[in-house]
Every structure is written in structure tokens, then in C-alpha cells.
Amino acid sequence: MLDLSDCFELEVIPPNTLSNLSMLEELCMGNSFHHWATEGEDNASLVELDHLPHLTNLDMHVLDSHVMSKGMLSKRLERFRIFIGDVWDWDGVYQSSRTLKIKLNTSASHLEHGVLMLLKRAQDLYLLELKGVNNVVSELDTEGFLQLRHLHLHNSSDIQFIINTSSEVPSHVFPVLESLFLYNLVSLEKLCHGILTAESFRKLTIIEVGKCVKLKHLFPFSVARGLSQLQTINISFCLTMEEIVAKEGDEFEDSYTAIDAMEFNQLSSLSLQCLPLLKNFCSREKTSRLCQAQPNPVATSVGLQSKEISEDELRNPLQLFCEKVPA
């Protein structure tokens, strides 16, 4: 193990120093050296790490995505915290053993194969200022992010859909995702375009959405019916949002089936702030049994005022979520 964490002044590692540590299993460089060079320059390069056959644990920070190695050890790494870009710091609590944070200074289409492999294996993923990505799943991981638990998407102006099932993507995606944070995605029109299986998002407990100004609804019914673990919904400054749950295409032609299938039994916090066009929680003809058998009141915040849902509203959630939200 080589631990260089918090060596703030470390700027030079002579070339081939790291590649000669052939038995190295762990390399910790968090909050430390980040002046990686391209091969042949007078500093350590990421290519050297590809020559460490036993390396399984890696913490490192790369300022420029252009110096990323094509291999990047992605298949061998069992634990990693890898930050790409010039905005990240190392403070905070890490929820997973495989964390990847990316801010690109170029189009995402230029990502090296090794980075794309890390995307597939990440459990905690931060994507900031993605350029040229319209459809997250089909362009970054066509397998559907099968290992991802936490996803943060911020300040990416080109994203139109998180999932578009008309592209070559599986019918179930994000099967173990626990939290989803979407912020300032100004072109985002839908979380999901098309119909997914109920296996998608089935582990989701937290969703927070802010400043997605083109987003008219959050979930299609095909996704909402599988959200039995959802505990927190926080939506703010989505200026065109009309409903939280809406019908997508021809899904659920039988309205009674839809009612029976969609329950948010674990929901404990609901915040809806600055949504001037919001009309319903869900379509009047497709109602949800929100908080059925929920023992405690749901903490809610609607508009600029907060309140608790009364016991009567819990027994009759249609009163709260199928009437037009007052202005």
C-alpha cells in the first residue's frame, strides 16, 4: 500500500516510479497529487497504473480528462474514488466503495474506453457539465447502470432524457439505484421516454429535482408503480411541471389495474416548491394510493408553506392528490 493522501504540495512524481511498484495493491492519492502527464513528459502518467497487475484499490484526482489512460484498470479495481475535472474536493462522507466524479472540458463522446468502463461499475456517480449527451443511458451505459446506487446529474444543458426506450437500451434500468439528484438540466423533458418494466428504479428511496425548466412530469406510470421504497420527493423551480406522475403513451389502458399497482407506502417527505403550473400529483383518472397504511404523517412542503398531511387526508389521499393544486 502507498498512501499519499493529503500531500497538498506534491507536484512531481518522477516517470516510471509508480510503474516499478509491481506488487502494489492500494494507491491512495486523495486530495494530493493531480499533475498527471501524458506519456513521455517529466511527470508520472496514468499509463503507469496499467502496469500494476495487483492494484485493486485506487484514490486519485485527474484535472484533465485528455490524459486518461485507455485501460484505466477498470476491470481490476475493486474499490475506487476517482475524480476527473477541476471542481471536486475530497471532503464529505462516501456512501459506496466505488465513487466516480466527472466534469469534462470536452464532449462526452471523447471519453476513453477505460472511463466508460468505470461508469458501468460505479456505485456513486457524479456527472457535471456533460456536453453532447442527449440520452444518458443509451450514450453512457447501454446496459442500464446495473451497479449504480447514487446518481447526481448537474448543470448539463444537452440532456433531454435520462432513458429513451426507443434507443437500444434494456427494458429495465437502474435496478439498484437508491438516490437520484437532477439539478439545472435545462433541456430535460422526461425522466423516461417510453415504457420500462417495474424492475427499473425499484430500490429508489430519494429523488430531488431542481431547475429542470422543461420537465412537465417526473415519473411515467410504468416507473411509478415500482416505487414502493420511495421515501423522499423534493421538486423545486421546475417551471413547466404539471404532474408528478403521468401516463406515458399507451401504458395502463386498464385504469383499475394502474390504481392497484401504484403505492407509495414508504413516502415520508414531500416537498413541492415553486412549481407554478402544477395541477395534480397524478392524472385524475389514474390515482395513487399514497401512504396507504403509513403509520406516521408525511412531512410536506407545498408552494412556500409547509404543513403536515392530516389523518383524514392519509385515509383519503385522492382529496390531496387528485384535485388541482391551489395557486
TrEMBL record:
Keywords: Plant defense
Pfam families: LRR_RPS2
InterPro entries in UniProt: At4g27190-like_LRR (IPR057135), LRR_dom_sf (IPR032675), Plant_NBS-LRR (IPR050905)
Source organism, top-level taxon: Eukaryota
Species of the source: Populus alba
Protein's recorded name: Disease resistance protein At4g27190-like leucine-rich repeats domain-containing protein
Residue stretches making up the Disease resistance protein At4g27190-like leucine-rich repeats domain: 187-288
PANTHER family, per database record: NB-ARC DOMAIN-CONTAINING PROTEIN-RELATED (PTHR33463), RPP4C3 (PTHR33463:SF198)
Transmembrane regions listed in the UniProt entry: none
